[in-house]
Design a protein that fits this description.
The chain is of the alpha+beta class. About 15% of the residues lie in helices and about 25% in strands. It starts with 7 loop residues before the first strand and ends in a 10-residue tail after the last strand.
Amino acid sequence: MTCSLCDRILLFRPANPIFQNRSLLKRLSMEKLSQWIQSMDKSAIMTGIECVSFQFGFALITPSFKLFKHKRPKEVLVFKEDFYDYLQK
């Protein structure tokens, strides 16, 4: 059995996480980023407050997608493999 001390890291401004040369918190809206991620990761899902990419291991988080889809994400959650398994069932 392995013991994991850290299974996720939450990033928020002023951090500037970059994925494939794009800022995940500073430039694009949640809607645009979600569409971009879903075009590369067909398993990515929207939960209402997050866009979760299982392939890339991160989630974009906003208080409410319906209310904030035109605003930037508030947080990026980088997670280890299997962290979001309950969402894929």
